[in-house]
Write a structure and sequence with these properties.
Blueprint (H helix, E strand, L loop, with lengths): L4 E2 L44 E4 L12 H12 L4 E6 L3 H7 L7 E4 L3 H12 L2 H6 L1 H24 L3 E4 L18 E6 L15 H20 L2 H4 L2 E4 L2 H5 L8 E4 L26 E6 L8 H11 L5 E6 L5 H10 L8 E5 L3 H8 L4 E4 L8 H8 L4 E4 L13 E4 L4 H16 L2 H18 L2 H25 L2
Parallel strand pairs: 1-8, 2-3, 2-5, 3-4, 5-6, 6-7, 7-8, 9-10, 9-12, 10-11, 12-13, 13-14
Helix pairs in contact: 3-5, 9-13, 12-14
């Protein structure tokens, strides 16, 4: 059983006046124990903790969860904390460019013939089924190889604590067991399926394959006991907490998975015509072009929008669905002034530059565990339209955007179109929602704020680990 699920000491969890900010969790009134205690002076370890971050990838170029370890590593280096990174060699070029003076702190895991063969098998099975089958096998093999490097590094560099930020899936096993130091895993985010009205987007074969993959994962968590032995497990929300394997011994805290680098995603100088009510409203989608992102529904909604208000839509990103989506956009009955533009893949800096010209971000995804792009757009001062399902619900509310219920395909497309029309017709509302989102991100979700919370979690985990060790001897 878990020791309990609590909420870390972070301003991200403030509640409005009159509302209990720490409601009962799992039916237990946790009271003040919903926050990790502030670490007390520890006479046996007066020096700052020495931290090792272990992950498969640490990369801004790869995007998604691969960016998380990189942000933690960069924060710790910036704080003068002794930290090391164990990561796959596929990230060497980028990490050498980003951290030229810290290469002696990075251990690269080399690729193998077996790993390359499994990767080819993984590429032959697209989508979630490939991720939960050959992808899972590949990640486990990488972790087992990584474990040896981590144990050696603990001994050689006198590491006090290991943090494993990825994989973020709550079901996947961790091979970092028997380390002799406390292990912190997460924040994890997952346990998702499609909304019920959209379940047909996933075939029966994929359903069966994923069911088998999840069953396999539960068995592996007993054979590979990293998560069961971890001192602290971080979850983004209660949905993820419910997806964790059973028989955990560590403390479970709730902490949102994503953050924002405000040095990249900053409110820019807006174009001169940004408040001109006569120009078309500029909507932007940013993300991969795959089926579960539901960009086809966005195009259906946009066709409705332009019949009521002048608007343009920029789609930034690439993926296997791009040819079909371009064909769908070309077939739409659009006025000449209302265009759909496919920009393709861009770097983070280029994406931020494009968002400077946008009036709102639209994320129609139906299977979005995280949704970092929501926070990035909010940081740019943009209102956001997203699905009331999964990750966006952790960040977005009516003060800074619109959450659309995925109650049915017809209602979902209509709701998205209505929200876009509302924003297209009201520049003052766009400015109001955008500023509220920017303020929310700056106060709660920037990486410096998350990093400081994580430092407290590290210290708390270290003290609990050694208190338990002393109690058993």
């Amino acid at each position: 059983m878990t020791e309990g699920t609590t909420t870390p000491q972070s301003p991200a969890h403030k509640a409005p006046a009159g509302v209990d900010p720490y409601p009962p969790i799992n039916g237990v009134d946790a009271g003040q124990e919903t926050r990790p205690p502030k670490p007390k002076p520890h006479t046996g370890h007066d020096q700052p903790l020495r931290i090792l971050i272990a992950c498969d990838s640490a990369s801004l170029r790869f995007g998604g969860e691969a960016a998380l370890p990189l942000h933690y590593f960069r924060f710790l280096l910036g704080q003068g904390v002794y930290c090391r990174l164990v990561v796959h060699e596929r990230c060497r070029e980028e990490l050498t460019e980003l951290f030229p003076d810290a290469q002696d702190r990075i251990d690269y895991i080399k690729n193998t013939r077996l790993a390359r063969f499994i990767w080819r098998c993984r590429k032959a099975i697209p989508g979630r089924l490939g991720h939960f089958t050959f992808g899972l096998l590949l990640r486990i093999i990488t972790q087992l190889k990584q474990r040896k490097r981590v144990i050696n590094s603990i001994k050689q560099h006198k590491i006090d604590l290991v943090h494993q930020p990825t994989p973020v899936s709550p079901r996947e096993p961790s091979a970092l067991f028997g380390l002799g130091v406390p292990l912190v895993i997460g924040p994890m985010n997952g346990g998702m399926d499609y909304p019920e009205p959209f379940r047909q987007m996933q075939t029966k074969a994929v359903d069966l394959g994923m069911w088998g993959g999840r069953l396999f994962s539960n068995m592996l968590n007993r054979l590979i006991p990293g998560k069961r032995q971890a001192q602290t497990l971080l979850v983004a929300n209660q949905r993820t907490n419910l997806a964790l394997p059973s028989c955990l011994r560590g403390q479970v805290y709730e902490l949102v998975e994503n953050g924002v680098d405000l040095s990249v995603w900053r409110s820019p100088q807006r174009p001169d015509d940004i408040d001109d009510p006569d120009r078309p409203a500029r909507f932007t989608y940013l993300g991969r072009l795959v089926d579960w992102k539901a960009v086809n529904h966005l195009l259906e909604a946009f066709e409705r929008v332009v019949k009521q208000a002048p608007a343009v839509l920029e789609i930034i990103g690439d993926g296997e669905d791009r040819p079909a989506l371009e064909a769908q956009a070309k077939a739409l009955d659009l006025p000449d002034s209302c265009a759909v533009r496919f920009t393709g893949w861009l770097t983070q800096d280029q994406c931020a530059a494009r968002l400077a010209y946008a009036d709102a971000l639209v994320l129609p995804s139906l299977l979005e565990c995280g949704g970092a792009v929501v926070l990035e757009a909010m940081a740019m001062g943009l209102p956001v339209i997203a699905t009331r399902w999964g990750g966006p619900v952790d960040y977005l509310d009516e003060t800074c955007g619109f959450l659309i219920e995925p109650s049915s395909r017809v209602d979902y497309v209509k709701g998205m179109a209505d929200a876009m029309v509302t924003l297209a017709e009201s520049p003052p509302l766009r400015k109001q929602l955008g500023q509220a989102g920017r303020d929310k991100v700056a106060e709660h979700f920037d990486w410096d704020t998350k990093g400081r919370v994580m430092l407290d979690i590290y210290k708390d985990s270290y003290l609990r680990y050694h208190a338990r060790s002393q109690a058993t001897h």
